[in-house]
Amino acid sequence: MAIDELRIRQELEMLNIAFWRDVDSDWGRNAHEFFTEDGVYTTSHKARKGREAIRGFYSERESRGDRVARHLIHNFHVIVQDENHATAEWTMCLYAEDGTPPLMSEPPILIGAVTDECVRGIDGKWRYASRTTKPLFKGSRPTSG
Fold this sequence. Notes:
By secondary structure, the chain is an alpha+beta fold.
């Protein structure tokens, strides 16, 4: 049976969009659920292993107060290993600032190369076994990651 690579690409793109929508619109309250139980989330500052560590990262960020963030996804590329394993490589452009909108428009605070190792669980859902962001360009303001 042939692997439907286009379908897998679409499913992973939808997963990525849903993840960043949760982070940008709901403080990442469900971000940990997008990862496997032992998933590793490496941001520009550190690696967090396991759902509880990832949940804690976003919970701590929310506790610091108002922030506006938008993670833009570019150049989404998927390499399918088999029907349950794939790698997504893409570019993230992050605009973020503490405060409430509207905020002054500035250049992005981070442009990074992101690599996602994705696995499909027995429930049929794709999750991140790992997500690694490597900064390519940094703005003058720090990221919260």
